[in-house]
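Design job #97: recover the sequence.
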């Protein structure tokens, strides 16, 4: 095991998973090899727990393992199952965001522990597709149904990429200034609390584990991976990744269609 790296954080979509959202045996074996060598593996993803759970069966769980989900807004442990960190937005913050973004008429999704909710409209096909990808159900929600008990993890603008292109230019500056806004997929933009991102989630996990963030490596492809790629001791970008991610990383591996995670893990073994 490397003297420098003790934890490997791995993004899922566009990184660990192929474009068809499947997981290769090659990547599974590489992760198992890393675990056997003593590395801790952490999936660090924008997905909710429901979107990660179906993949856990592929991996042997030798000790308590952790998931950094909701783009760093939540840390969940498995074996035992529990939440150790969870950042949400209250009713006033949620309504502030929705009121500011509804005039864009681009399609809004509210995400909380109860699932996905299309705000003030029936789900469009991109909303349904994204919900299906992460194994969540989606239903309509009117703003009037939001209560003081509503704890929002994420608000997303979800629609065809051309509509998202236009929406990205019209997001009010007050939303950009007060929240973390990132286009994590061509068809969606995510809005979360200002200081919530994958790097903040990994810092919280590092504190929980008592392992310096400098002893983490991270592998990712999208703009929602940027903060963690820059924060950890060794950031690795996928060949299919955003140009900014590739530029900010210390090493570029193969694409998600070419078992880039396996190649990245083998590279980490040499550090």
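Job complete. Output follows.
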């Amino acid at each position: 095991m490397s003297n420098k790296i003790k934890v490997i954080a791995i993004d899922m979509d566009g990184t660990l998973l192929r474009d068809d959202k499947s997981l290769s045996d090659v990547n599974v074996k590489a992760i198992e090899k890393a675990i056997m060598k003593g590395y801790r593996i952490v999936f660090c993803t924008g997905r909710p727990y429901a979107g990660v759970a179906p993949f856990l069966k592929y991996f042997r769980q030798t000790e308590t393992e952790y998931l950094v989900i909701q783009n760093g807004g939540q840390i969940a442990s498995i074996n035992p199952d529990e939440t150790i960190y969870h950042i949400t937005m209250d009713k006033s913050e949620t309504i502030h965001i929705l009121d500011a973004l509804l005039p864009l008429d681009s399609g809004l999704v509210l995400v909380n522990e109860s699932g996905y909710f299309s705000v003030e409209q029936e789900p469009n096909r991109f909303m349904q597709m994204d919900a299906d990808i992460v194994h969540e159900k989606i239903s309509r929600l009117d703003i009037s149904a939001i209560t003081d008990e509503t704890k929002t993890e994420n608000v997303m603008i979800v629609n065809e990429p051309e509509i998202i292109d236009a929406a990205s230019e019209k997001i009010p500056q007050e939303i950009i200034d007060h929240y973390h806004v990132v286009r994590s997929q061509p068809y969606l933009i995510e809005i979360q609390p200002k200081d919530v991102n994958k790097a903040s989630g990994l810092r919280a996990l590092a504190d929980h584990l008592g392992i310096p963030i400098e002893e983490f490596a991270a592998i990712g492809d999208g703009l929602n991976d940027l903060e963690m790629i820059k924060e950890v001791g060794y950031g690795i970008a996928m060949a299919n990744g955003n140009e900014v991610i590739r530029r900010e990383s210390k090493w570029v591996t193969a694409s998600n269609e070419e078992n880039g995670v396996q190649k990245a893990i083998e590279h980490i073994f040499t550090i």
